């Protein structure tokens, strides 16, 4: 009888100890989850505060209308752009033009030049604005990310150049406007071609 009581006491002790261990594990797990949730919650608050305290930047997009289309469109950008925070813009050049790269200028500098959109030579020698990160996009354009690390008003310009065109061929075409298949033909353009582009050439007489 005494052995039976002793065995029952040991069983109850083990069960009680197991219950304590399980409760401890449960409490530790809850604490860990609470810390993880709190850390994420407070990080979001910190991010929101940092965004709210970042200076708001005045940004314009300007270019001659013949060059293409953009999103946001020409004029003041209505996005809430903050210093050191990235935002996106997109430009698609007209088929007659190719994108050579985005440029950033101080808006105050461009406003004193006259209408440079009609005479792009007015921008010759005008320095671009430092502290503005612009995307490196292909000549066919596309969407890119911009980051402005300055507080002065900024004007972004998707600078374009004319598409290359044929200036002459060697040999010149025959009277019928045809070349013999076995002839070697040299086609000369007004400017170097972008090797990354898939060019389709149409030679007009």
Helices and strands in order:
Elements lengths: L1 H52 L5 E3 L6 E4 L3 E2 L10 E7 L3 E10 H4 L21 E2 L8 E7 L5 E9 L3 E5 L15 E4 L16
Parallel strand pairs: 1-8
Antiparallel strand pairs: 1-3, 2-4, 4-7, 5-8, 6-7, 9-10
What does this structure look like?
- There is one protein chain.
- This protein is of the alpha+beta class and 205 residues long.
- It has a four-stranded mixed sheet.
- Strand 6 and strand 7 form a beta hairpin.
- The protein folds into three domains: 1-53; 59-162, no CATH class; 164-205, no CATH class.
- The protein is 27% helix and 26% strand.
- It has helices at 2-53, 107-110; strands at 59-61, 68-71, 75-76, 87-93, 97-106, 132-133, 142-148, 154-162, 166-170, 186-189.
- The mean pLDDT is 79.
Task: Write a concise keyword list for the protein shown above.
single chain, 2 helices, elongated, 205 residues, alpha+beta, four-stranded antiparallel sheet, four-stranded mixed sheet, 3 domains
Helix count from the secondary structure assignment? 2
| Rg calculated over all Cα atoms | 34 Å
Q: What would you call the quaternary organization?
A: single chain
The H/E string reads HEEEEEHEEEEE
Helix content: 25-40%
pLDDT under 50 segments (min length 5)?
A: none
Beta-strand residue percentage: 25-35%
The class by helix and strand makeup works out as alpha+beta
Mean pLDDT score, rounded?
A: 79
Largest sheet: number of strands, sense, barrel closure: 4 strands, mixed
The shape is: elongated
Order of the strands making up the biggest sheet: 3-1-8-5
Strands, total number: 10
Structurally, the number of domains stands at 3
Q: State the end-to-end distance.
A: 119 Å
């Amino acid at each position: 009888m005494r052995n039976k009581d002793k065995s029952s006491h040991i069983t109850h002790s083990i069960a009680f100890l197991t219950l304590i261990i399980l409760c401890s594990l449960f409490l530790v797990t809850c604490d860990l989850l609470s810390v993880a949730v709190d850390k994420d919650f407070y990080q979001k608050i910190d991010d929101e505060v940092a965004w709210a305290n970042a200076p708001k930047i005045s940004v314009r997009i300007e270019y001659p209308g013949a060059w293409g289309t953009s999103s946001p469109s020409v004029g003041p950008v209505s996005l809430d752009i903050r210093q050191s925070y990235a935002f996106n813009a997109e430009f698609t050049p007209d088929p007659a033009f190719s994108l050579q790269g985005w440029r950033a200028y101080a808006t105050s500098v461009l406003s004193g030049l006259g209408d440079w959109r009609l005479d792009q030579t007015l921008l010759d020698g005008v320095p671009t604005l430092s502290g503005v990160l612009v995307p490196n996009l292909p000549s066919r354009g596309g969407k890119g990310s911009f980051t402005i690390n300055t507080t002065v008003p900024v004007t972004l310009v998707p600078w374009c150049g004319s598409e290359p065109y044929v200036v002459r061929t060697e040999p010149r075409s025959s009277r019928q406007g045809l070349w013999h298949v076995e002839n070697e033909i040299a086609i000369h353009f007004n400017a170097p071609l972008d090797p990354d582009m898939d060019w389709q050439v149409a030679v007009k007489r």
